[in-house]
Each structure stands twice: as structure tokens, then as C-alpha cells.
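Researcher: Can you fold this with D-xylitol-5-phosphate in place?
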Amino acid sequence: MTFISPSVLACDFSHLADEVIKMESAGADYLHLDVMDGHFVPNISFGPSVISSVRKVSRLLFDVHLMISEPAKYLDNFIRAGADIITLHIESEGNIGEMIDYIKEHDVRASLAISPKTPYEAVLPYLDKLDMVLVMTVEPGFGGQKMIPETLDKCRALRREITKRGLKTNIEVDGGINEENVWLCSSNGANVIVAGSAIFGSHKPRSVISKMRAECDLHPFAG
Ligand code: DX5
Ligand code: ZN
């Protein structure tokens, strides 16, 4: 099953509520919310108060991607804001295992992200308790970059390991994904697709979302 998660980073923030509602009617499954602190990544986006405002207008599954240095300090705020999934970067500070447990104790799905230079093996000690692994397909920090295809090798290795362990963990990919290259993601084992500019930059988001989903269905994991 493929899930499409439009990244609001690429939306028109002067009409945030309308943009989010538009995604829901365009058939999105998740809503990807990129939180950046200007320290973990060289960019600043938005925080929990924006997320809780958007929560009031949307029933989409909120997929919160934390690109912040000290996530432990803010987990409560994102849980209260209405996150359904919280993704931490394994490269961030703090006790990763404890943070995952904390998220799950609050009935929120837990996910770990790896930046392009981080090997996939880094997530293996946590894999059994994760709902999702996010394999970054660009360096985190900015929308509109080009996908780094080599990162997909990590999706393949992770999908094999997840299957071997009998788990149902989702694999999300994020960065530079569009209608033309999304098949590479699904055939390498990813099943949650984040796309910012490809979806919000189109006048026909509904058709981009359905084309992406169809491409993934046509190109399942090739093993
Ligand atoms: C990058 C963010 C992405 C970004 C994707 O750090 O994590 O979610 O918004 O944007 P596109 O699809 O435009 O590369
Ligand atoms: Zn993201």
C-alpha cells in the first residue's frame, strides 16, 4: 500500500488552511510537516503552534518531520499539537531509544530519519519498535532539490531487513520526488512518498497524486 504525503513546505503560506484542505480533496493520505530550527539544518520553518492551527482544519494523518537539534525538549509540544507520526533524525542529540518510547507511550507513531550520508545500519537497533523509517533522498533543509538516487540503495536494504524480521514498518522517502522518478522509490521498497514542489507546484495536484500512486503500484518492490 502506497501513501502520498504532500509537504506543506512548498505551499503558499498566505493561504495555509486552503492549501491543506486542497490536499485533502486531492486525495492525499498524509500531510508532511517539516519543522526546522535553523541549527540542525540551515533553514527555519514553523513549529507546534502552526501545526495545531492546521489541525483544526484537517483530518489528514499529520506526518511531522523534526529537523531540530534537541527533539526531546519539544516532543510534548508536537504531541499536543496533533502529530500522528513523529519522525526524529538519528543524527540529532539525545537518547534516541527513550524518545521513541516516549512518543509511542503517547499513542503517536514513531519514526527515525536518516540523512543521505548516514548508513542504514544506524536504524537497525531501533527497527523493531519503529512504525516508519524515513530515508532522506536529499540533504535535509530545503525543498526543491534534486533526488540523490544512491540513497535508494538504503531503502532496498531496509525493506529486505524489515521483511526478514517479519515487520510491517513503512519506509518513507523525502526530497526531489516527482511523477517521473517515483517508480524508483517504490521499486526500491519505499511505500510512503513525500513530495513538496511536485504536488504544490502543480495546477492539478489531484492528478499528480494519482499518477504517483499508480506509478508505485506499477513498480512494486523488486527485491
Ligand atoms: C527537506 C524536507 C522535504 C521537502 C521536500 O528537508 O524534508 O520534506 O519539503 O520538498 P521537495 O519535494 O520539493 O523536494
Ligand atoms: Zn521532510
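Model: Folded with D-xylitol-5-phosphate in place. Residues 7, 32, 34, 65, 174, 194 surround zinc ion (ligand 2) (CB under 6 Å).
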